[in-house]
Amino acid sequence: MDILFQGLIQIKSGDTTYRDLAASITMINEVDKLYTAIHRYIKERFKSIYAELNSKEDQEIFIQDLNRELQFRGMVQRPVPHSVFEEIILDIRKESFYLNNLLPHIIVSRDSRVREDFLMNSGLDRFYVEELERDYFDMNKIDTHIIEEIRK
Fold first, then answer.
1. Where are the domains of the chain?
2. Global pTM value
3. CA distances from 39 to 35, 111, 148 (A)
4. Beta carbons within 10 angstroms of residue 9's beta carbon
5. How open is the CA angle 25-27-31, to the nearest 5 degrees?
6. Is the per-residue pLDDT at 93 higher than 60?
7. DSSP readout, the chain?
């Protein structure tokens, strides 16, 4: 939203054009699509080797293997920057922490403040976390009224 807002201000002042702003927004959209695709792919791979990624060296090998595999599958044309992989791995660890530690506590205590604190500070998308919660409730056959109660 900040890019859009700043872009509109720059258009008004004559510092940029609508075409430039549209190109910036398109680029953000492309990066987001790439992030989402890689996130899904890494998450699947991550499930089987999570415990093995304790050291920086193991994580580096994992990232190199993923980069080669993503290029081989045609998901990307050139190597993905390490920072993207590191951000995705950190997000997956946040998801895991939420699902395995915080959400069970939130369900038992019905403390929505803990949930809101996590949402505000984790950097994860609220809608994505709600999707994770729905899956968690479905998988564990937990009454869906509880999820509505903790979202208030």
1. 82-152
2. 0.73
3. 6, 29, 27
4. 11
5. 120
6. yes
7. -HHHHHHHHHHHHTSS-HHHHHHHHHHHHHHHHHHHHHHHHHHHHHHHHGGG--SHHHHHHHHHHHHHHHHHTTS-SSPPPHHHHHHHHHHHHHHHHIIIIIHHHHHHHT-HHHHHHHHHHH---HHHHHHHHHHHHHHTT--HHHHHHHT-
What would the pLDDT profile of 35-58 be if each residue is shown by its tens digit? Answer: 888 888 888 777 666 556 677 888
Write out pLDDT tens, residues 63-84. Answer: 888 888 888 888 888 888 888 8
N residues, the chain: 152
